[in-house]
């Protein structure tokens, strides 16, 4: 059953692909189908690209919402569509081809898909089913002896925060004030998302907004405290409604290492061999039923069960990388939060190795073998037992439990723990592969969007900003971009961004005070400890200065900023090189706050992004350099300035067609020839762009040179004609209006004009009459022997002489054209206006004549002899 629909049509232009992606993303998010958004965006991007780019037609996109998923249809309108024969199969195309990959992706990602043909249309549709997810889960535990209850440090602080339907904080209890440092009146009515540091991992995590809308949700995230530090918390969310039907979410938050308070496990005695337990699945005995359906929940349940099973003080679980060379911390209980997420240790080789991770191991006293289990260093744990998780003989992880007392564990406990590990290894590996697949799909969608954004600009500063904004907060809490101008230059801190805008200035100051990272071209991310060390030293100095005060209340703003900045850079900092065209052009630096590590999948995604960003940044640099050169050359073709002509007002308006062009095929010039005489010219070279600009430069400089040699107007143009023809294949014909101007003592002005194929100059008299001020003659650059003549015109006080190029007279709107008559009508109402006002009115009339921007170069030259009282 279709419960909602949304449709849109996209024009056959490149930018339509991005617009279609945004349309599908917004539609599905509005329907609450966030689980399938990334796959839908990727598939839509490929199918719309096939339509608007490869087929060159408009694309119709239709989204249909059903009770169990979403169906998206993409149609094109290729005019010569052939209906395939029934017996012929579909050609999916090669994955390496630029086009034709849409059907391959449909087959890989969609639940169902198909293609329907008509003589004029091709419809490709795909169906994405929603994953099965229970609305809520209820669980109850049996009565437990006191000795088996979870251990908490001193008093358990449970923050109770209620969020109303708009996402604002409606209630904030005393424990919340104690844990996070904000009084209730300071946070009342503010958005809860302003305080949340949510774990952003593309494709794997529900966002905070979605989590607050679910009927029940549990998991880990962070709350930014009043001192700037992020406090890791474990939260349990419950969606409720009041008597009026208004929904809100109640959040119970505890310190992350006290999550057992909210997640008291069901403890089943594994050693019980009764008939009832023998008939039960060993996996359910250990993990409980129902088993968590997400990887993080499964891992956390596993470590808590393992701790309880061996009556331990702490437990931990690490997952192996694909090459089995490192183990990554994924879940702990009973250990400091610093040991919890994504820290890595080598499996067997090198310092800090994990020990014999491939076999069960028992350490009766870690003080005798320090460093055998790096995860437990400085935790107070002395005895530990670790067992491997293996699937088909391959190491997939390691499970361990530890106790504060020495000699707690023997081989018997190791065998019990190994038995439990064998029961859950396959489930953990299956959940890990599922998470990895979701992450990769989310990463693909992320990279598609990133590539499209980076390809949409050639501005260097905008590229830097986009690079940082795509990184924060999706991949990191903060980032900094260093750029390198050339091989001899030092890296320069060009851009800094933090997810909390109030931290940006302090972070920028800290990074500016330390040496930049070395520009190493080796691919991949490498650790950079300098920011953490500098932040620690700055915080230490600040703490010493404030010693003896009631910090942080009496602490100044500068001291609080220093401590907040130190907390911001207290976690891992990694550097990725920006390499383009075999040269390091900069570095992308990513950072986490205190006690946080990067997971490998995020670093791999950041490496993919850095490659795309480096090429975009280098393209922007090359474009900027070439644009600067082009503009410099073009400015050299423009006149240096208008001379001050006695008793004559002169105004010029010039517009070159084409983005980035300052000079085109139209040109003008006004220059002194000798005492009391001035030359003026306005011309139009055939065409636009650099080729026309080259002839423009030749004509303008030749005019000045020949006029100052004393040649008359016809002689100047005849010699210019010969110079243009000498250019051979590079020559272009040229229309030119050239004249000489002599201001007279009686207040008038004498002009001698030659109009070589150019639109005729118009003379406006004081009575409002308009007439042509010259006769047409042959244009330049076509025939060798020209016979030109000049005509004299006298401008009386109040008269205006208007000279334009054909970009003015040939301004079009459909079949209409402004023309000479339309220009004369506009000029007729300019009586009494100054030369500048006349030129401005002509320009406005041209711009308003048509809605589309002008596609031809345009020059307007207005000369007016002012009346005596206006001098």
Describe this structure in words.
- This protein has 871 residues and is α+β, with helices and mostly antiparallel strands.
- The chain contains 20 helices and 34 strands.
- Strand 6 (159-164) and strand 7 (169-172) form a beta hairpin.
- Helix 11 runs antiparallel to helix 15 (600-637).
- The model is unreliable at 85-99, 134-141, 265-281 and 549-554 (pLDDT under 50).
Strand arrangement across the biggest beta sheet: 7-6-11-10-9-8
Helix content: 25-40%
* Low-confidence residue ranges: 85-99, 134-141, 265-281, 549-554
Task: Determine the number of helices (DSSP H or I, runs of at least 4 residues).
Answer: 20
Overall pLDDT confidence: 82
Q: Which radius of gyration do the C-alpha atoms yield?
A: 38 Å
Q: Mind describing the biggest β-sheet?
A: 6 strands, antiparallel
Number of extended strands: 34
What fraction of the residues are assigned to beta strands by DSSP?
25-35%
Q: Find the structural class using helix and strand composition.
A: alpha+beta
Tell me the distance between the termini: 82 Å
Globular, elongated, flat, extended or rod-shaped: what is the shape? elongated
